Amino acid sequence: MDLGGIDLTTEVVRTDRLLLRPFREDDVEAVLAGCQDPDVQRWINIPVPYTRADALAYVLEDSPAERRAGAGTNLAIEVDGTVVGSTGVHRIGQHPMGPEIGYWLAPSARGRGYAAETTHALAEWALGLGAHRVYLVADVRNTGSQAVARRAGFTQEGVLRSYLAYRDGSRGDAAVFSRLPTD
Ligand SMILES: CC(C)(COP(=O)(O)OP(=O)(O)OC[C@H]1O[C@@H](n2cnc3c(N)ncnc32)[C@H](O)[C@@H]1OP(=O)(O)O)[C@@H](O)C(=O)NCCC(=O)NCCS
Asked: What is the pLDDT of residues 33-75, one digit of tens each?
């Protein structure tokens, strides 16, 4: 496997309502704003406080480097030309668990099914390109993210105890979800 040879620098995924496409420099403000949200800061390992320099590095350095390496891609979630969140496929070809999907939405874009639509589409994209499985992990306390996984057609496989490490030194148990081509 696993998605080898795909040019991640140009890949876009379209759904009924969304465009998932590589980040651009003019997305920095949307990333900066979204990453101020307490839930994003709680559940995703980003620097806190999250600064413009962090958003710039994410958009202009880290994401392009990951794409060039073929290891993964961070994608802006766009609705009618507005960036409402971020999703990504990571660890491509690097881990037998399969490519990993992650996501966050700006608070104003929640409750509309965008995360589930995004995650379903990204899973279809990866499986369609030959991935044997895709997975995601969510803290067992993050009920919203687990609901996204189920709505996106993922099946819970189990719980990895003390898998997640947080900035404050605490740890969290992770619910593991996957989708297979046969699901
Ligand atoms: C996790 C997160 C992305 C979930 O966002 P969300 O908006 O609840 O997820 P969805 O986009 O799938 O929306 C689902 C909700 O929209 C509703 N909805 C409205 N229209 C819908 C539609 N057309 N299709 C599906 N759902 C729809 C659903 O009923 C559901 O509502 P519910 O919360 O009452 O069940 C968001 O809370 C977030 O960004 N959290 C912080 C970061 C984070 O935790 N990331 C994941 C780390 S593992």
From this structure: 999 999 999 999 999 999 999 999 999 999 999 999 889 999 9
CATH of domain 13-133: 3.40.630.30
- pTM of full prediction above 0.85: yes
Roughly how many angstroms between the first and final C-alpha of the chain, as a whole number?
18
Ligand 1 atom with the smallest distance to the CA of 17 is: 23
Query: Considering all CA atoms of the chain, what is the largest pairwise distance in Å, rounded to the nearest integer?
Result: 42
Is the C-beta atom of 107 inside 6 A of ligand 1?
no
Query: Which amino acid residue places its CA nearest to atom 31 of ligand 1?
Result: 111
Q: What share of the chain is helix, strand, coil (3-state, %, to 5)?
A: 35, 30, 40
List the structure tokens of 63: 């994401």
d(C-alpha 39, C-alpha 168), whole Å = 15
Q: What angle do CA 122, 141, 172 make, to 5 degrees?
A: 90
CB of 138 within 6 A of ligand 1: the answer is yes
Domain ranges of the chain: 13-133
